[in-house]
Amino acid sequence: MSAFDLVLSGDPKLYSIVALSLYVTVSATLAACAAGLPLGALVALTRFPGRHSLIVLLNGCMGLPPVVVGLLVYLMLSRAGPLGDLGLLFTPPAMIVAQAVLIAPIVAALTRQLIEDLWSEYRDELTAMAIGPVARVATLLWDARFSLVTIALAGFGRAAAEVGAVMIVGGNIDGFTRVMTTTIALETSKGDLPLAMGLGLVLIAVILLVNAMAWAVRGWSERHAG
Amino acid sequence: MRDLASTLPIVLAGVGFAAGEVCILRDVTLSIEPGPPTVLIGPNGSGKTTLIKLAMGLLAPTAGTIRWEQPEPAVRRQAIVFQKPVMLRRSAGSNVAFALKAAGRTADMATVARLLDRVGLAPLAARPARRLSGGEQQRLALARALARDPEVLFLDEPTASLDPAATKAVEDIVASAAAGGVKVVMATHDLGQARRLAGDVVFLARGRLIEHAPAARFFAAPATPEARSFVAGELVI
Predict the structure, then answer these.
(1) Would you call A129 and B74 a contact, using CB atoms and an 8 Å cutoff?
(2) Does A143 touch chain B if contact means CB atoms closer than 8 Å?
(3) A5 torsion bin: left (phi>0), alpha (psi -120 to 50), beta (else)
(4) A139 in contact with chain B, both atoms CB, cutoff 8 A
(5) Phi and psi for A205 in degrees, rounded to 5?
(6) CB of A181 within 8 A of CB of A203?
(7) Nearest residue in chain A measured CA to CA from B99
(8) I need a labelling partner for A126 at 20 to 30 A (CA). Which of A105, A161, B77, B216 fits?
(9) Which residue of A has its CA nearest to B80?
(10) Domain segments of chain B: what residues?
(11) What is the pLDDT of residues A94-138, one digit of tens each?
């Protein structure tokens, strides 16, 4: 069966892998946004000792190697690790944690830059209106909402495409923790190219769809919110 | 609603402002009292914007003192329109609603519509604020400022980049606000505009207050050589 046949026939094995991949990556993106958006806004709007070092660290962590993140999360979740009692290793939640750790710095660093730029534009107006600190953060996040969606989608794209971290902490267990990228790597090594290529097509389609959504969100926002 | 304690008078005594080594304003003594519009005129770089921001409390003086009748900044009934106002990324109506809420006022549709109508933007309530023309944005900024029900309205060259029709629209709103009892303090380098709107004129040059006089007297008989040159249309550098 060719790769296209697998995709078009609705092969249950292929689509169960796609479903798990989307579940893991969407969950990781939400978790990364929950941590990264407020952290980025906080760093953008506050001044404290070590702030510049934190910004350099956040920016540097945007390029974290997935296998290193996988290794660190593995050490945390392994039986001997500090979170070993949770029993998460080689489960989808462990993969979610690894991907969230991988993309949270991306979300935080880009949010920090975005909010800082917006604050320099809004500072005088919001100060003149006597807007308090909490309302200030809310206003900036709301006015940056469409760009923040783009940041979240960039994080999603990075998480969806990575293989090293989920391979290490998920174990690539058939029917349980096997996702698109790990399956492509495994099936290619086994010589089952149709399944690998079918998943590759779906993965590319998902990433293109995500980018199309980002483009559409920006276009819509320019037309409706200015 | 907020405390309605008066903001005026605003008394500046020996006020100076320096940014690093650069002295932008020096030794300005001025009292802003209730009454007709006070217009700050002077060439570019004379310190008009800095003086407005100091009087508004957006900048702290590096010399001298400023005393407001209402010392608490958050409850001063004052508002400002900048030369290039920043429009929030939402509709014109939502921009006004935001200003109403920020002022602790009810942001119902009727109040928003009334304010937009006051500046001639009622038909554009749903349009994204950043897609309005320059003149419309300036009028929306005025609506946002008026949403604060200000006792003092600071205007920093609000018509600097507008065509004559848009300038007239803005001036009409300003004149209407002043006639309604709002103290207008406006910076401009447009002498014609100063003649049309000013009750009294503060003339600044090179960071100094050169002359402060009732508008009629200032334009008829300026007391200083710099003011005479400026009123005569000569270049004051």
Answers:
(1) no
(2) yes
(3) alpha
(4) yes
(5) -65, -40
(6) yes
(7) A129
(8) A105
(9) A128
(10) 1-77+150-237, 89-148
(11) 999 999 999 999 999 999 999 999 999 999 999 999 898 889 989
* Closest C-alpha to B63, from B94, B28, B36: B28
Structure tokens at A207: 């990433």
Cα-atom radius of gyration of chain B, to the nearest Å? 18
What is the fold, at CATH topology level, of the domain defined by B1-77+150-237?
Answer: Rossmann fold (3.40.50)
Tokens of A159: 């998480």
Give the pLDDT confidence score for residue B2 in this predicted structure: 42
Two tokens, residue B39: 């217009």
Interatomic CA distance for residues B33 and B177, integer angstroms: 16
For residue A174, CA distances in Å to A5, A20, A171, B91 come to 22, 11, 9, 51
Closest chain B C-alpha to A37 CA, distance in angstroms: 19
Within a 13 Å sphere around the CA of A125, how many CA atoms are in the beta-carbon half?
Answer: 24
Cβ contact B55:B32 at 8 Å:
yes
Nearest CA distance, B195 vs chain A (angstrom):
28
Q: What ipTM does this complex have?
A: 0.85
Residues in chain A within 8 Å Cβ distance of B103: 129
Structure tokens at B205: 């040059």
Going by C-alpha positions, the residue among B183, B182, B191 that lies closest to residue B231 is B191
CATH domain A23-179 topology: MetI-like fold (1.10.3720)
Q: Is B10 left (phi over 0), alpha (psi -120 to 50) or beta?
A: beta
Chain B closest CA to A131's CA: distance in Å? 6
Using a CB-CB cut-off of 8 Å, the residues of chain B touching A139 are 88, 98
Cα nearest neighbour of A142 on chain B: B89
> Do residues B93 and B112 lie in contact, with contact meaning Cβ atoms separated by under 8 Å?
yes
CA distance A141 to A181: 33
CB contact under 8 A, B80 and A128: yes
What the block records as the tokens of A48 is 């404290």
Nearest residue to A44 (alpha-carbon basis) of A115, A122, A125, A138: A115
Q: What is the pTM of this model?
A: 0.81
- pLDDT under 50 in chain B at which residues? 1-3
Residue of B nearest to A136 (CA): B102
Instruction: Count interface pairs A-B at CB distance under 8 A.
Output: 46
> What is the spatial distance between Cα B93 and Cα B185, in angstroms, rounded to a whole number?
26
Tokens of A61: 């962590």
Do B204 and B40 touch, CB atoms closer than 8 A?
Answer: yes
What's the rounded Cα separation, in Å, for the pair A48 and B230?
A: 48
Residue pair B129/B88 in contact by the 8 Å Cβ criterion: yes
